[in-house]
Amino acid sequence: MDNSQDIRDLLIIVHDKSNIVPAGPDHPMMGNLFVTEKGRLAEMQATLDSMLTGWLSRKNSTLLSR
Predict the structure, then answer these.
(1) Residues 38, 27: Cα–Cα separation, whole Å
(2) pLDDT of residue 2
């Protein structure tokens, strides 16, 4: 976001009222877009979920031991 044009473009995307249906994973041209990124994102989500679960377990055990 180096300039106001970037912010304007982002706001246009976020507040889009065009009612155009986005291309889904079954679309012939767009279906395989970002496959690598989606896989990496799933890995990151699993790691973060595991970290959160571990932290909550430690937090609960600390609270129960008081």
Answers:
(1) 16
(2) 65
Class of residue 61 by CB neighbours under 10 A (exposed 0-12, middle 13-18, buried 19+): exposed
Alpha-carbon separation of residue 22 from 13, 19, 44, 65 (angstroms)? 12, 9, 25, 51
Q: How confident is the model over 35-60, as pLDDT tens digits?
A: 889 999 999 999 999 999 999 999 98
- Separation of CA 11 from chain center: 18
**Rounded to 5 degrees, what are φ and ψ at 46?**
-65, -40
pLDDT at 1 over 60: no
Q: Pick from 18, 1, 19, 2: which is nearest to 10 by CA?
A: 1
